[in-house]
What we know:
alpha/beta, about 30% helix, disordered N terminus
Amino acid sequence: MSSPSLTAQERATGQALDAERYARQTILPAIGAEGQRRLLQSRVLVAGCGALGSASANLLVRAGIGRLTIVDRDYVELSNLQRQVLFDEADVRNRIPKAAAAEEKLRRINQDVVVEGLVIDLNASNVERLVAGVDVIVDGLDNFETRYLLNDVAVKHGIPWVYGGVIASYGMTMTIRPGSSPCLRCVFPESPPAGSAPTCDTAGVIGPAVETVAAFQAAEVMKLIVGDTGALNTSLLAIDLWHISLDRVPLPAPIPSCPTCGLRNFAFLDEATPAQTTSLCGHDAVQVLPQVSQKLDLGELRRRLDPVGDTAANRFLLRFRPTGSDHELTVFPDGRAIVKGTTDPAQARSLYARYVGA
């Protein structure tokens, strides 16, 4: 969606280094001019652009990461603004996808950085393409299933990534370096059973907790890129801002029997097809994926749906509310839809089939 603002030669030689812009950063001995050049030459993937993803992306673009790719499947809603720092009320009114809104904001912040926002669902069918050439991955996700997928691809290709999670006033983060540290499944062998763990719907979340965890994540990314591995976080860092506590839980060595990094069984990555429905945290909604990837003509779909409900569209998505219904469908050009007003996958699939097609 964006075009590079720096040439490869400029990045390689450091000619584009803006001494004034990064002066307060390069004065740190751990970074310096050479570290800044490394940052400008780096590529980072932010997986998910909700609270943590948007806060981390904001910090990394200001730090001068060379190329930042943001992947997110969702659009901006009013409840996001309390903690998701890259979005505003205009994004809510216009139903702008988070990845597109983030790209627009971040490109205005730092022209040194190539920012690419991808409005897609990160899944087993596309994740290896998305991480190709990436130096570090940042976790801004809201579910463990996709985190395990991220862990699979990071371990398989030897890409470091920084895990993060926040709920209520509590957050945690750890830095995963394949081959040197335990992976996510060494620490969390299985995801919490459905309904057993609090979510942002049931426990809430405060912005300061998000910003704190995102700050740790962004700092870890910078350390990895400049090569200061001795300063990396080697624990599971847990923080509660409301009760003023900080715990560092020691991590074990990589576990030889770990299915992912020990046995190199990439079950989430090798999944033949991605799940067709996914419940979305904070939305009272279900995402529906088409059985086969497709390219929808949103204008034609709108003309077909206009007689049976209220529609609104922009170049990113189409919103549709059937007449007399409490449900709302947001349909994307790749055939994906978010069905709001239900948490029942079967009902979401039924509504999708009825209004969009099988």
